[in-house]
Amino acid sequence: MTPLPDADENTGPGGRIDAAAALLTAAAATRTPCAPVRQYLGEGDIDAAYEVQRRVAAARAASGARRVGAKIGLTAPVVQQQFGVFQPDFGVLFDDMMYAHGEPLPLGRFIQPRAEGEIAFVLGRDLDRPGAGVADVLRATEFVLPAVEIVDSRITDWDLTITDTVADNASSGAVVLGTTPHTLDARDLSRVGMTLHRDGEPVSFGAGHACLGSPVVAVAWLAREMVRREQPLRAGDVVMSGALGPMVPIGGPGRFRLELDGLGEVEAVIEEGTK
């Protein structure tokens, strides 16, 4: 396990945020899980957790990674029940997290990965006004794609509270995007059914209504939250709208094929290796 940075009971808020950020950064760099960061942040200080996320993301950007969008986590009730965390959160997507249909993903870049099926939104307009609603999201969306998210946690054994997963960039890992765009014209995403297969066997089922009622509703939530936190969504951003069903452990090399009713399919190919 990644060693704990010093931060005793007399450490101020800034020191505790620095300690949590250092712990997560070291865990990511060494591919070694760490203890929960709630020991520094508490279980309910979400603002402090987002500040940890911001600092870790800023360091990643300073090292050359480019922000390409955002992801929503903890949208589906079944996923919330898996972790005992009953509210959504968000994280940042970077260019080095993005893969295309069929492109191999090295298993060694992850710590304890799991797969989930989602709908990815690609924005054609900014969503930068307070109070964004469903109509704003529909107008701003250029197209959607089927997507497999590889979620990962730097926290040992996925032992999470809301502050742990927020600080850890919403437990992000990688994203695999389909290659055929679909517009939202007369399409009800709440009715889209999902099946996720591993090596030809179905392992997860779900539907759009499991994602805060509809993936469009989830993206509207994200748009409002990101404006409130001064990180608005911009034209060109990829937005992972949240799981449509249970996440499943990856465990080893394999092929995860996602089928979405009316939106096609995408396959994530997990291979041995680190690069």
Describe this structure in words.
It comes from Streptomyces flavovirens. Keywords: Lyase. This is 2-keto-4-pentenoate hydratase. Residues 87-270 form the Fumarylacetoacetase-like C-terminal domain. InterPro entries: Fumarylacetoacetase-like_C, Fumarylacetoacetase_C_sf, Hydratase-Decarb/MhpD_sf. The protein is of the alpha+beta class. The chain has seven helices and 13 strands. It has helices at residues 13-30, 38-41, 46-62, 77-83, 134-140, 162-167, 215-228, and strands at 67-73, 89-94, 98-100, 104-106, 114-123, 141-151, 174-177, 193-198, 201-207, 238-240, 248-249, 254-260, 264-271. Strands 1, 2, 3, 5, 6, 7, 10 and 11 form an eight-stranded mixed beta sheet that branches. Strands 4-13-12-8-9 form a five-stranded mixed beta sheet, with no helix packed on it. A hairpin with a 3-residue loop joins strand 12 (254-260) and strand 13 (264-271). Helix 1 packs across helix 3 (46-62) and helix 5 (134-140) crosses helix 7 (215-228). The longest helix has 18 residues, at 13-30. It is globular, with a radius of gyration of 18 Å. Mean pLDDT is 92; it is low at 7-11.
Features:
single chain, 275 residues, alpha+beta, 8-stranded mixed beta sheet, 5-stranded mixed beta sheet, 7 helices, 27% helix, 28% strand, globular, 2-keto-4-pentenoate hydratase
